[in-house]
């Protein structure tokens, strides 16, 4: 067992974990945070997305011991305009992927604001386009197909943040 300390949703947590325990399992099973979901357990669906020091990561692919001393934010610790925008634009149906979608979108907006390029970034492009949102969010799957509402919600919030 290894003792780790992380700041999770603003509270310092101390955990004893085996070195092979994923961050997702530590959050869900040891801390009772069920917002991040175990969808594929292979990093392909994005349902487990959380923010580590403000950067979006797939918690199922991360070992908890790697995040000793770091700050982790799950959907339970989020207070962001995207949450209301998802409701307003019908950005979810069953809700299984929603926590990962919102955490990913928060990270994605920060990446775009910081000028990090994507596969569709136009040189010198300032505003976030729909194609850019779809590319940057492509690591988060929605089995219900609520993509249009998700994109609309993100565009809505991005427009308010930039304007």
UniProtKB/TrEMBL annotation:
Pfam families given in the database record: Fer2, Fer2_2
Keywords recorded for this protein, A-Z: 2Fe-2S, Iron, Iron-sulfur, Metal-binding, Oxidoreductase
GO MF annotation, one: metal ion binding
Domain annotation 2Fe-2S ferredoxin-type: ranges: 2-78
Recorded superkingdom: Bacteria
Associated pathway: Alkaloid degradation; nicotine degradation
PANTHER family noted in UniProt: OXIDOREDUCTASE WITH IRON-SULFUR SUBUNIT, OXIDOREDUCTASE, IRON-SULPHUR BINDING SUBUNIT-RELATED-RELATED
Protein name: Xanthine dehydrogenase YagT iron-sulfur-binding subunit
